[in-house]
Each structure stands twice: as structure tokens, then as C-alpha cells.
User: What shape does this take?
Amino acid sequence: MAKHRRLNRTAVIEKAAVLADEAGSVTAVSLTTLAEALEIRPPSLYNHIVSLEDLYSGLRVFGLQQLTADLRQASLGLVGREALLAIADAYRHFVRLHPGIYPLTIHAPEPTETELAALSQELVQMLLLVMASMGLQGDDAVHAIRGLRAILHGFASLEMAEGFKMALDAEESFHRLVEVYLGGLYL
Assistant: This one.
């Protein structure tokens, strides 16, 4: 085991995210496997995290930060339909790249999860701006965001579970689905 290794909470969480994504599930990450990957003894992890649940909490925050950054980057400088198409593609790409931490990003924050709640609100605000660029405000915009989220999550989840085995191109199916959704926003 390496000695005098400089670690911090961020490095521990980032390594856990890599392990979860490589395994395809966050449940594959235990404190023991994480310590081994970091080349430290398991008790040394407690200098950076309190428990496995604390690690998962950190992974939820990390995952949502990454997802928000990816969606923001994809839609930078775009408005309306083009922004939503870019967001849809970026969301699906995120799920493909992060099968381990993605499931942690979909749960609604508990009242005690203030950092996660703030990140969720940041993502919603970004999406509200996109919806506003399409003429949707207030409850209409929130309903549209919920619909988008359900469509993207549903498709990506089925894809992760290898639910599209037919010879038809899943990429084409995805883009058609998003186009149908976009068409419905203008009704």
C-alpha cells in the first residue's frame, strides 16, 4: 500500500465514480474495493468520508454536477429546438458513459440534501430558460421538463438494459422520439 498519499474527498468520490461506471453499478463499489483502488487501507477512507451512505451522497452530487455541466455545455449558445436536441443527445451520452452513477442522479433530493437540492434547482433553471426560448412559461414549462426527463430517462434506461435488440437503428428511434416530443410542445 502506498504511504503518505495525498487524497481529499473529491479525489475519493471521483475514483468511486470511475469504479461504479466501470462496473456498471454503484453497488459494486464498497469501501474495501475503493480503498484498494486508491491504494490505501480502508480506515484511511474515513478521513474523507463518514460512511458508505456518505460516499453515495457524494456520488449523487458529483453525478448531478457532471450531468448539469454536460447539458449546459451541449446547449451553450443554442435556443429552442436546437438547444433541446443538443440536451437530449448529451443526456443520452451521459447515461452511456456513466452507467454506474447515472441512477444516483435521478432521485429527488431529500430536505436534508441541501447541496443536491441546489444542484437540482440549477438544472431545472437551465431547462426553464430553454423552455422559455420556446415560449413555454410557468406550469407549462415544468410539465414540458418533466415530459422531457421521462422520455430521456426511459429511452436511456431501456438502452442500458439492452432493450433495443431489433435490427432498426436505436439512434434513429431516439431522434424520432425527441422530434415527436418537440412537435407536441408546439400544440
Remarks:
- The mean pLDDT is 94.
- The domain at 9-185 is CATH 1.10.357.10 (Tetracycline Repressor; domain 2).
